[in-house]
Amino acid sequence: MTNINDIAKRAGVSVSTVSRVLNNHKYVSNEKRAVVQKVIDEMNYTPNKNAIDLIRGETRMIGVIIPYNNNQAFDQMLHGVLNKSIEKDYSITVLPTKYNKDKEIDYLSMLKNKLLDGIIITSRSNDWETIIPYTNYGSVISCEFTDHPEIGCAYIDRYASYLDAFQYLKDKGHSKVAFTTVRGMESMSTRQLIAAYKEVFGELQYEFYLSDCSRFEDGYDVGKKLLSLKTRPTAIYANGDEVAGGMYQYAQSINIRVPDDLAILGQENQPIGVGMGITSVDHQLIKVGEQAFDLVINKSRQKIQIPYKIIERSSIKVLT
Questions:
Q1: What pLDDT, in 10s, does the model give residues 214-262?
Q2: What is residue 28's DSSP assignment?
Q3: Spatial CB neighbours of 68, under 8 Å, sequence gap ≥ 6
Q4: CA angle 315–317–319, rounded 5-degree value
Q5: Stretch (H or E) spanning 195
Q6: CB 241 within 8 A of CB 230
Q7: Is 260 in a helix, a strand, or coil?
Q8: Rounded to an integer, what distance in angstroms lies between the CA atom of residue 271 and that of residue 209?
Q9: Residue of 63, 78, 113, 109 lying closest to 297 (CA atoms)
Q10: Within the chain, which residues score under 50 in pLDDT?
Q11: 3-state SS string over 210-259?
Q12: Where do the HTH lacI-type domain residues begin and end (predicted)?
């Protein structure tokens, strides 16, 4: 099997010169580069990627820890990471966890074993004290805020966005407001959402909060539950535009008019929300993913906040 020494001998150059050509090093004359490349082509030589990675001291591979796909929030963050990776010529490895703590640690151990240059965590199951030691082996970037100095982060102020969303509905005249989440109280986002609700509306009615919602079908089922209550909500804040779309369709099926009889507020500005005219809280998660990528390849520990915005459409009007 041809190796780098064979290439050097046949081309009449040093092994280090061949190494520089393979790694696109600029300090090689065009004449020598052409000679070495000609021999590489003639001998049909394919370099060992692991060996080159060791020489360079990097893999140009970034891991993205993601609980699961087919979720608008995580898919948008991953989309942002992929956008930047193509620009910068990095490879991305998607690391799904389903919030399994042991699986998450296995992925973080890939930094220690030099299989990755860095890891972006879109959402975590382990506490930061468990994660921080792995920053000794590579860059770890979070897509949620953390004040730990070892961890850089690209994040949105979720609590502020939830406050603004509920206040927006209140300003439109709504006091009977329901909402949905993906996860239960184990999720920081869920706890922040409930705290924001209580700050704006006071005590939470238990039946006005439903979890385990992530798909259009979940929204349809939740709409059925909420709109069959004796005292039904006049507005619903869905944790995604797909979920909101399911609610919208169910409301229409029982002749509840949106926005006259029911206001629906979605999240993440998805195409279905645009098509159905659903007002949405856009956390700009593609930008979060893009910024997280920049942080991880630059080994930065900065804390970068991405702004959110409420995009108004026809699914909400002033309650009369």
A1: 999 999 999 999 999 999 999 999 999 999 999 999 999 999 999 999 9
A2: S
A3: 74, 96, 98
A4: 125
A5: helix 188-201
A6: no
A7: coil
A8: 25
A9: 63
A10: none
A11: ECCCCCHHHHHHHHHHHCCCCCCCCEEECCCHHHHHHHHHHHHHCCCCCC
A12: 2-56
User: Per this entry, what is the length of the chain?
Assistant: 320
CB 227 within 8 Å of CB 262 = yes
**Helix/strand/coil percentages in the chain, nearest 5:** 45, 15, 40
- The DSSP letter of residue 306 is P
How many CB atoms lie under 10 A from the CB of residue 73?
22
Q: Enter the tokens of residue 233.
A: 């909500």
Gap between the Cα atoms of 12 and 6, Å rounded: 10
Which domains, and CATH codes, for the chain? Answer: 4-56 (1.10.260.40), 61-156+286-308 (3.40.50.2300), 158-282 (3.40.50.2300)
Whole-number Å distance between alpha carbons of 17 and 32:
8
Concatenated DSSP letters for 60-74? -EEEEEES-SS-HHH
Query: What DSSP assignment string belongs to 131-190?
Result: HGGGGGSSEEEESS----TT-EEEE--HHHHHHHHHHHHHHTT--SEEEE-SS-TTSHHH
Closest CA to 288 of 66, 80, 64, 91: 80
CB of 83 closer than 8 Å to CB of 290: yes
- The identity of residue 233, as a single letter, is P
By C-alpha distance, which of 113, 108, 155 is closest to 127?
Answer: 108
pLDDT digits 0-9 by tens, 36-62: 888 888 888 776 655 555 555 578 999
